[in-house]
Specification:
alpha/beta; two-stranded antiparallel sheet; 5 helices; 8 strands; 42% helix; globular; FMN; oxidoreductase; Flavoprotein-like_sf; oxidoreductase activity; FMN_Rdtase_MsuE-like
């Protein structure tokens, strides 16, 4: 049986980024807890074909490979920086390219970053409905981190680390239960 994969997608447009660092942290925790392989991508990894694409077939092969990994992942970790109260437009464009059934039943950890606490509901008011459309299994614990939770390019907030660990534990339980059902079928 091939090794399972956990995939992270960051909606950030620049590097280095707190959002990608945050997503990588969560992906790493999921991989450590499950023994899965890990991969994290951001919008820049999709390359120049991405912005003009209207369907997955319009993407260059490296970007299509990212979509394939995402579709085959055991668990997804998705996150975006907050821009004007929502996720980035190109983050949404990425998910607009996907088949509506491609994430059905897939465990998804929701995360976001922002400059302050006033944007903390992005995960509930923006991300959760987006993945509800896909009928994904969004994990109950979502994680929002603000600028004050990072220092010198690292996640330093113990409260945010604990919340991330809670979401990871929930995702691992969901994936394990899903695998048990799949094996029994």
């Amino acid at each position: 049986m091939p090794r399972q994969l956990v995939v992270g997608i960051s909606g950030n447009l620049t590097r280095p980024s707190k959002t990608r660092l945050f997503i990588e942290h969560i992906v790493g925790e999921v991989a450590r807890n499950t023994g899965a392989a890990a991969a994290t991508y951001d919008i820049e990894d999709l390359g120049p074909s991405f912005a003009q694409a209207r369907r997955v077939s319009d993407l260059a092969p490296p970007a299509r490979a990212i979509v394939e990994q995402l579709s085959n992942a055991a668990i997804l970790v998705v996150g975006s920086p907050t821009f004007k109260g929502s996720y980035t437009g190109l983050f949404k464009h990425f998910f607009d390219l996907l088949d509506p059934n491609s994430l059905k039943g897939k465990p998804v950890i929701l995360a976001a970053t922002g400059g302050g606490e006033r944007h903390s509901l992005i995960v509930e008011h923006q991300l959760r409905p987006l993945f509800g459309f896909f009928e994904a299994l969004t994990i109950p614990t979502a994680i929002y981190a603000s600028d004050r939770d990072f220092a010198d390019g690292a996640l330093v907030s113990e409260a945010i680390r604990a919340r991330a660990q809670q979401a990871v534990a929930e995702a691992c339980r969901v994936a394990q239960a899903r695998d048990s059902v799949d094996l029994a079928a």
